[in-house]
Write a structure and sequence with these properties.
Layout: E1 2-6, E2 9-12, E3 17-24, E4 32-38, E5 45-50, E6 57-59, E7 67-72, E8 77-82, E9 91-98, E10 112-113, E11 117-122
Parallel strand pairs: 2-11
Antiparallel strand pairs: 1-3, 3-8, 4-5, 4-9, 5-6, 7-8, 9-10, 9-11
Amino acid sequence: VQLQASGGGLVQAGGSLRLSCAASGRTISTYAVAWFRQAPGKEREFVASLSATAVITYYEDSVKGRFTISRDNAKNTGYLQMNSLKPEDTAVYYCAVDRRAVVPRGSRDMDYWGKGTLVTVSS
């Protein structure tokens, strides 16, 4: 599975961005989808995950109520809608998929990773 993340950019605090994660090589309809981020000088951290059935979601506490993870299996693509962005959301965002149907909050290990997309939030 190859993953391509896109949609990052520069946005002012309070703004919104929508990240996309396009998969190729095989269908990810039975895979859980997740997003991670790595801020400068920090370790990569879990942001959100969505189960294969699109029923179970997990979010890191600081993004709850602001970020929404979703998927479109027909397009073999996952998404992360980010609203009310804050400067502390600035990071490289990575998408990943896993053969587990559910990826719990705080997970670190995923089967496949995409290259990151940079999100910069200015104050």
